């Protein structure tokens, strides 16, 4: 079980255009668009979006070289040999070449699939905008020297406010341009980057939207609308993929050709101008203290809704206050609430609504205490409507009134309407206790609350518990605790109960000082006996088991249950499963050195049901015994725990697997035995003697009544037989009896040590062999570890085995 004990122990900041070119200012040019940014170009044939990753931009001035002897030449009517007539970007490349905006890497080679660097894009950008080269300014970036081919273009782009470096002194000219960066720069150049959130959300329909950086999302939305960028056939955008030279050419060609009307249309769609507004509600009548949410519907010149208009609210007339768009009525009177929408550069648009604030009506109960009632007896409650002076408003009709009732059965609500100034509600309750009643009404306030009392009805049921257990040691006593209830399970005051024993040779029962309780004192005869408890015509029977020593408690068949085994399964279902398998006792894990004492809430329900079913319950604890005194204290606490019904464990199963030194084990066992008494059943759960013969046997013999070795024979990943299991148990019975001479209760294996291989679960034949050996060699009983993990066949074999004591 050590393995199971171990299981118990385990109870962007994103910078805009990072590493790319940044537009710091859009500069409009005569007859041209402003600067361009790193957006994506048209896709190859059959695609929708910009160029494939790895595309490269136009070459720098002077990048052309003479064609080498035998080099490929351009086909007639095409600009470059590697851009044939059927190429998806041939028209744009030819157009830009004719304008002197792009050149090839050689006179005949354009390299359309090469990536676009930052330096190349700066060159392409300045050429496309026909900006005069800046040559009279100091060098800006340390990594762009005056002899670098793109130096004048980078200087020009920087001083025109189109691009910035990665830092104040670094430009990273060889860095690659990504698709989202191109979109961001172009949108800024066109002055359309600041679109509304709603436009952005409606325009971005790529499957990888979440991969677009926050700084670029609005720009990508604008560029998408202008058809400067598109998605791939799989509806992805691939925002961080680098652009290529063909893509950059197509992008700039589109940029230069985008109609100004389409840009204006985008601006209107992305940031529509509000022309009219409407306020909801159109008017309001409230009472003091009532709140009213307000909203504005804004429309553009075409009557289309404008999302999230900039609204400010104001109130006049000293009738209330505003918190954002929520008005709270404070004072009776009339006033006006005004909504103002003002967009940048536009005249304000206002709309007002008239508001009336009235004094609230008052609701009061006809009496604060409606008295005492029996279960299901009608409780009539009346609520009166009054004005602010306390005068009844007998003319009030159809005011919706809600009663909220809180009591022992929880909260309930009842609704009605007023008639002639009052509301009448009749209710009934079954749970005994005090009920508090409050009232609410539309535009009304409550003046106080009310209450009533439900007292128990007539006697109908008797619940009887045997405390601490239905298992009683010969010569000792247990208590019968009886509680009377009415038919609705309300507890009654103690009623006299008559107790009788079916066979007085097992013991006798006497009444305690409380007439409802009794004491059973067992004689020397062991076996089962029935005790009846009777009041009036109601009789309850309890079967008791009188035993003589600890071996009687754990004779027959038992089951070891981890915390999750008895916590996560319904108690009734679990106990019925045990009864069907003729299990006489169970072991519940309730304490470990690491986890402490746990499971009290579940024990409260489990113990009395198991005892009533004739199943003894042993408290299973795991003591590591590094500190034997602390473990002993925790063990004593668990064994002495008493449920609300007076139940306790029938005995202790101490799992001893660590610190097997005589001193540690003796200090633990001695402390526990001293606290629980000489006759308290104590079982030592130990390693098999056939596995580990060096154990503190003298300590075990001195303090424990029963030896319980854990014989888990199926510990290798291989087939086992009936004979293997029989032999393992047989050998252990012989050796352990030789070492201790104590009664032996055998713990056999039903769990699979190899959970990833179902074939290694102990078979029904193995379980049969182990149980037969334990029975043949006179073990007092046999328990399985753990029944809940056994295969169906294994559990059925365990259940079918007949153990005759």
TrEMBL record:
The keyword Signal applies. Keywords: Signal. It comes from the Bacteria. Residues 1-26 form the signal peptide. Pfam families: Big_2 (PF02368), SLH (PF00395). Residues 44-79 have a biased composition (Low complexity). Residues 76-139, 140-200, 203-266 form the SLH domain. Residues 44-81 are annotated as: Disordered. PANTHER family: OUTER MEMBRANE PROTEIN ALPHA-RELATED, S-LAYER PROTEIN _ PEPTIDOGLYCAN ENDO-BETA-N-ACETYLGLUCOSAMINIDASE. This is SLH domain-containing protein. The lineage of its organism: Bacteria, Bacillati, Bacillota, Bacilli, Bacillales.
